[in-house]
Write a structure and sequence with these properties.
312 residues; alpha/beta; seven-stranded parallel β-sheet
Length: 312
Amino acid sequence: MVTGGAGFIGSHLVDMIIQEKPSNLVVVDNLFLGKESNLQEARRNYPNLKLIIQDATKYKAMQSIIEKEDIEVVFNLAIVPLPVSLTKPLWAYKQNINLTVCLCELIRKRYFKSLVHFSSSEAYGSSLYIPMNEEHPLNPTTSYGASKASADLLVLSYYHSFDINAVIIRPFNNYGPRQNEGNHAGIIPLTIKRILSGKAPVIYGDGKQTRDFTYVADTARVTVEIYNHLYRNTKGKVINIGSGNEIQINQLVRMIATCMNYNGDTIYQAERVGDVKRHIADTSFAQKLIDYSPLCTLERGLKTTIEEISKC
């Protein structure tokens, strides 16, 4: 089962899981962010894919689905995203916690065997040192980041108290085809779409803040690898997934503009509340555990993303 599997990262993970030839594959998504169209490729490659439209915070409903579908592993990517937490902070926090509480209770009662839980680099807040390893203090600056940090601690507490088979993946900034649209979009799709529509790119703050951008297919691939190592060396671990490279937002926008032959102005607007200043992942732990290294460079990933968005 992939909760949030009709979303951006979730749908790419579904595509990657299909390559493993699972006997059964179920997506649970309430379509708050996800779209059925994100699963078109998955349905072509795996006609028996099941999409169940359901709020994954509902314990009884999730128990029923897991029992009926004979689920062994849950990849938990269901989420209320960061932008929502800036307007509905309490609701976003509670939803994200309740998503995790539900699954932790179900695995504690052995309704399924393994949990691969998705965290976020936002749990760290701005870097206190670089690169940011898994021991970096959790110092979130938004209720979204706080919800991810809290959920991680909850999963770890169940691991220590009840010996659940669980691992936490902490991805840095993902990008690529199918990324969220509208108010929930990231800077890469927003910048591409603005240039395509003849508008100037927008940067919030001075643009000197940095991020570690990871192509979504790399994240999906390593997630499957981490699960495949669960009973060997990844159980009970928190694992960063990133590129190990940081880039200023100013540089990122220039790269996109160059790829799209855009020579116009860039608009600067007020800094966003809770925006972290610097992020760069230390991925040495993932390299040690599963020999991880990203396959897609930022330049190649941006070109692929521009091509895909241009088709829409």
